Structures are given as structure tokens and as C-alpha cells.
Amino acid sequence: MTTTFEPATMPAVKRQQLAHLTAQMDALKQGGTYFKLRVLDDEQGPVCSYDGRRVINLSSNNYLGLCEHPKLKEAAIAATQKYGAGSGAVRTIAGTMRIHMELEEKIAAFKNVEACVVFQSGFTANAGTVSSILGKEDFILSDELNHASIIDGARLSRAKIKVFRHKDVAHAEELLREIENEPGRKLIITDGVFSMDGDIGPVDKLADLAEKYGAIMMVDDAHASGVLGRNGRGSVDHFGAHGRVDVQVGTLSKAIGSLGGYVCGSRDLIDYLYHRARPFLFSTSHPPSVAASCIAAFDILENEPERIERLWSNTAYFKQQLADAGFDVGGVTTPKSETPITPIIIGDGRRTMDYSKALFEAGVMATGIAFPTVPEGRARVRTIMTSEHTREQIDQALEIFVSVAKKTGILS
């Protein structure tokens, strides 16, 4: 017998306790930046279906096409059959499975560090680490464009936060000098690749500062893992800064194609996070299928370097064509993109969202991003290239970008 659940009916009288949220949503609608979630109907590929419409997908973090890779699927199915659908507990009680340890050992070897711990997401990896390794007597020096998870972790730590201008190493040193003789630890933190503008953080130069002033050095490599460095080892490898970065954070849900985040560093750091990082202590561990698919992904990074080569070839071509067409792809009012993340800067939030919607109707998925995700006046359509886009698909997308831009007044 099949049971059918009817949707709940709306109460006859609306409660007013959350009326302020309705007012804020109304303000977003009036400003033209309100959006509805688009629903993916099939696999996350270079061309896929959202809301029943077939589109060229330029919004996914699936840099290397691993979300739909057969080896990841096979690994996930095999692990489910062997270990079950879930782990059943948090890691510190009964939820640490052998496959979790295998994944952490695999990542540590890949990143050339002593140890690694896997979190449920990149966000919790950042927030849980920063908030647990520092306290209210300490200082955090953070790039002004660092990811929200870094900002939240810094606030949760109760440390004193100093924000330096974007990629401005001299300003970071100026702030360090101001607090050099203050008691407490100092932490310098930067994104390896900045998610909204696609530029690369000055990891090597900030590591120099950390050494000079005895600070802890931390890098969030969410958008650098699988993209920068040998076989996608990230920004630390890209700059040859092995042994100079104390805390490396990465994600398993972008180029790796699955789900989760991780922290790499010394054995003592990882053991400490086992004991003190609240997201690790209070969240059920990954299903075995997720751990298995991630292990398979790192094997592919080692054995199929041509994927990263295709990614960078596609990226160079796409950037150049957008620039030649007259689009602002950064470097004027915003930082210049250096990676497969290429923003098309429009400025006004409403115009940006309208352009994104028109692109979707014409066959391209390219998400509009406006305040508060980016500063006022810097709204953009953010595009992300992958290794799996064909030249034909890229050219078709470019034609749509230009034609819709001319129709909407973005280009003359």
C-alpha cells in the first residue's frame, strides 16, 4: 500500500513574527536581485537541463568533469554495497570507518603533508578550523575578499580581526607591525583562488610575512584544488611553498566532484582538530559512498593530467574571446581573473540579473551575482570553464553572450 502525503495548507491568518523577512524579500524583488533556485534535471555536465531547459552550463564548479566520471560512480556504488548507505555516527563515537581513514591518508600524501582531516563541507572545514585554533587573545589578518566561511570562522574564534586590502602584502605587513608586540598568536589567512574574481592569492609573499613575524599561515584552496599546481595539488604547490603553510584547507565538492572539505597540516594540528573542531565533533561522518568517490577522484588527478591541460586551454580561449568581444572580464574596477573563474562585470544588480535570465532563455546557464555576495556596483555574471566543454560548445556560448548583450544594451 502506498501512502500519499498531502501538502500542508496555509493557515487562515498569517503570523507576523517573521514579517520582517517578507519585507526584506520584497526589497530584493524591487531591486531586481531576487532569484529562485534553478533545478538540475540530470547530471552536472557541460551541457545539461535546468528547469526542463537544455543549456550550456557555465556555472558549475565541476572543473574536471568528475561529477559524472564513471570511476567515481562505480566506486560509490561498490562502497555502498560493501559498507552500507551511511556511517551511523559522528567520527569520535562510532562513525570513523576504515574508508574515511584511507581518504585522509590519500589526501595527505597528495598534498605532501603529515596528516589530513575530512569535514562535511569546505565551509565547515574553514569555520571549524579558524574558530578552534585561535581565541579572544589572538589576532587574525584576513584578506578583504576572503570567503564567507573564513569570515565566519574568524568571528566565532573571538580573535581580534585585522582586514588587509585585497592581495596587498605591504598593507598586511603594516598591520602585522602594529600588533607585533601584542600578546597572542597571529594568523595570516588568504584564499588560494578568490571565488568571485578568479584571481590568485599571493601565497608565497604572505608566507614570507608569516615567517618574518612568527605568524601562522593558512590558505583556503577550495577553488585551487584540482586547478593549480602539479596534478591539481593547489596554490601551495603552484608557488612551491611546501612546508611554509601551516594550515591548508580544501574542498571535495568542486574539482574533486563529490562532497566535503578537508584540512591538511602537521599531525599535531589534525589531532587537535579531532578533539576541538566543533563541526567534526558534532556532525555525522560522510557516507562511505562519498569517501570512496573522493578516493577515486584523487587517483584520476594523478593518472589523467590531460584533464587539467584541457581546462586551462579552454580557459585561455574563452577569456580571450570574451575580452575581444568587448566584455569587462576584470582588471579595471575589479581584480583580473587568472583562473577558470571569469566574471563578466556589469555593475548594476538589476541589469546583471536581467542579463543572466536572458542568457538562460537563450541557452546558457551563467549565474548573476550581486550584493551582498559582491560589493555594490560590482555585480557580475560569473562564468566557470571546465575541461569537458568542447570548442563547439564554447563558441556557441560566446555567440549567445554577444547577441544577448547587444539586445540588452550590455554591449553596443
From TrEMBL:
Alphabetical UniProt keywords: Acyltransferase, Biotin biosynthesis, Pyridoxal phosphate, Transferase
Domain of life: Bacteria
SUPFAM superfamilies: PLP-dependent transferases
GO MF annotations in UniProt: 8-amino-7-oxononanoate synthase activity; pyridoxal phosphate binding
One Pfam family it belongs to: Aminotran_1_2
Enzyme class: transferase
Pathway entry: Cofactor biosynthesis; biotin biosynthesis
EC number: 2.3.1.47
Cofactor(s) annotated in UniProt: pyridoxal 5'-phosphate
Chain ranges of the Aminotransferase class I/classII large domain: 54-399
One Gene Ontology term from the biological process aspect of the record: biotin biosynthetic process
Reactions catalysed according to its record: 6-carboxyhexanoyl-[ACP] + L-alanine + H(+) = (8S)-8-amino-7-oxononanoate + holo-[ACP] + CO2
PTM annotation (N6-(pyridoxal phosphate)lysine): residues: 254
UniProt function note: Catalyzes the decarboxylative condensation of pimeloyl-[acyl-carrier protein] and L-alanine to produce 8-amino-7-oxononanoate (AON), [acyl-carrier protein], and carbon dioxide.
Subunit structure and binding partners: Homodimer.
Protein family membership: Belongs to the class-II pyridoxal-phosphate-dependent aminotransferase family. BioF subfamily.
Name under which the protein is recorded: 8-amino-7-ketopelargonate synthase
Naturally occurring in which organism (per UniProt): Granulicella aggregans
